[in-house]
Automatic annotation (TrEMBL):
<dbReference type="GO" id="GO:0016491">
    <property type="term" value="F:oxidoreductase activity"/>
</dbReference>
<comment type="similarity">
    <text>Belongs to the nitroreductase family.</text>
</comment>
<protein>
    <submittedName>
        <fullName>Nitrobenzoate reductase, putative</fullName>
    </submittedName>
</protein>
<keyword id="KW-0285">Flavoprotein</keyword>
<dbReference type="InterPro" id="IPR000415">
    <property type="entry name" value="Nitroreductase-like"/>
</dbReference>
<keyword id="KW-0288">FMN</keyword>
<dbReference type="Pfam" id="PF00881">
    <property type="entry name" value="Nitroreductase"/>
</dbReference>
<feature type="domain" description="Nitroreductase">
    <location>
        <begin position="11"/>
        <end position="217"/>
    </location>
</feature>
<keyword id="KW-0560">Oxidoreductase</keyword>
<dbReference type="InterPro" id="IPR029479">
    <property type="entry name" value="Nitroreductase"/>
</dbReference>
Length: 239
């Protein structure tokens, strides 16, 4: 592969937010995973694992995430009784391994805010249009209709190195998918709740859920014309 070819591949990958109802062939998925296995690792420890859901398992996960996400929305519904609000709060209480909704450092928060504003502008969603914003948020937890729903787990007892390795592996996986004509979207929000995953997969307790992702074929929906900005990598200044 030439430098120009790899550069084109890397630039062609984007976060798809609407997928066709078209399955990913098992051989293609196997090739993607085999390529991802070529990623480097800290002393070759590879302290991570993947959970891949399709078909009925994926639907079971989507149903569970949808229920929790809608309960989260209900906690802000002023028309609910106190009892109903408490039930919604209990159902939507995050049980993930990491505080996904923790405050961002200010400089990083600004970057995230710019992305959100740009995406909502692209979708013509007003910042005060909460029904439309909630509908888009819910789509995240439904993997945007993708046929493959993936989860990345890392060894709790080998952080931060297991997380570093998992990130390298995931980027390799996403690029390998694009090479096969398969689109993708990282889904960090899936780490908000761990319990839906444990209902479907037998995952050792020493592994923590750090992110999810979607694989499939992007539709022609308007949302898929959106591209996030990719500013230059920040370099440390010499003394």
């Amino acid at each position: 592969m030439t430098t120009q070819t790899f550069e084109a591949l890397a630039k062609s990958r984007f976060s798809a937010r609407d997928f066709l109802n078209k399955p990913v062939d098992s051989k293609i998925l196997e090739t993607i995973l085999q390529t991802a296995a070529q990623s480097p690792s800290w002393s070759n420890t590879r302290g991570y694992m993947l959970a891949i859901a399709q078909g009925e398992r994926k639907q079971q996960l989507i149903d569970a995430y949808t229920q929790k996400c809608k309960a989260m929305f209900r906690t802000k519904d002023a028309t609910l009784s106190e009892e109903e609000r408490l039930i919604a709060q209990k159902m939507s209480q995050p049980d993930g391994d990491f505080p996904v909704m923790a405050p961002y450092p200010q400089s990083l928060k600004e970057r995230s805010a710019r992305l959100g504003l740009a995406l909502y502008k692209h979708l013509n969603i007003d910042r005060k249009d909460f029904p439309a914003r909630n509908a888009h948020t819910l789509r995240n937890f439904q993997a945007f209709g993708a046929p493959v729903m993936g989860f990345v787990l890392v060894r709790r007892d080998f952080l931060p190195f297991a997380a570093l390795d998992a990130g390298i592996m995931l980027q390799t996986l996403l690029l390998a998918a694009k090479e096969q004509g398969v689109d993708s979207c990282p889904l960090g929000v899936l780490a908000t709740w761990r319990s839906p995953l444990d209902e479907v997969f037998d995952i050792p307790t020493e592994y923590a859920l750090i992110t999810g992702f979607a694989l499939g074929y992007a539709s022609e929906a308007h949302v898929n014309a959106f591209r996030a900005e990719h500013p230059p990598i920040e370099l440390a200044q010499e003394k």
